[in-house]
Amino acid sequence: MRTVCCLGLAILLAAALVLATGGCAPRPARMVVVTQPSTSVEVVYVQKAPPGPRAEVKPPRPTRKAVWVPGYWRWDGNSYVWVQGHWEKKPRGSAWVPGHWDKKPRGWVWVPGHWR
C-alpha cells in the first residue's frame, strides 16, 4: 500500500512541477516589420504621345470628405489603357495633385498623382 501511495505522490508531484513551470517558459519574441515606401522609381519612357483626356461621368459623391481623383491614361507596355477616375477620402489639410504625362527628350514620362 505504501508503494502505491508513494507512486501516486510521485505522479502528483511530477504533474504539479510540470504545471508550475509551464508558465515560466520565455515568451517567443515578436517580430516587428517596418516598411517604408520605396524611394526609387522606375522611369519608363514611352515614345508614343498619350491620348487626350476622356470626359468622365462622376458617380454621386459618397461623402462630403471625398475628392474626385480624375482618370488617366496608363501605359501597359504596348498601348495606353484608360484608368477610370474615382472618389477618395481627402486626408485632413491636403489637396490632390493630379497625375500627368511629361514630354522629355527620351519620350513621355508618367508623373503619378499624389496628396500634397
The description of the largest β-sheet is:
2 strands, antiparallel
Structural class: alpha+beta
Strand arrangement in the largest pleated sheet: 1-4
Residues in β-strands, percent = 25-35%
If you compute it from the alpha carbons, what radius of gyration comes out, rounded to the nearest whole angstrom?
32 Å
Order of helices and strands: HEEEEEEEE
What's a concise summary of this model?
By secondary structure, this protein is of the alpha+beta class. The chain has one helix at 2-22, and strands at 66-69, 72-75, 80-83, 86-89, 96-97, 100-104, 107-111, 114-115.
Task: Sum up the structure in keywords.
single chain, 116 residues, alpha+beta, 1 helix
Please render the helix and strand layout as text.
Elements lengths: L1 H21 L43 E4 L2 E4 L4 E4 L2 E4 L6 E2 L2 E5 L2 E5 L2 E2 L1
Keywords: Signal
Protein name: YXWGXW repeat-containing protein
InterPro entries: YXWGXW_rpt (IPR024447)
Question: Can you walk through the features of this model?
Answer:
This protein has 116 residues and is α+β, with helices and mostly antiparallel strands. It has a domain at 66-115. 18% of the residues lie in helices and 26% in strands. A hairpin with a 2-residue loop joins strand 6 and strand 7 (107-111). The mean pLDDT is 81.
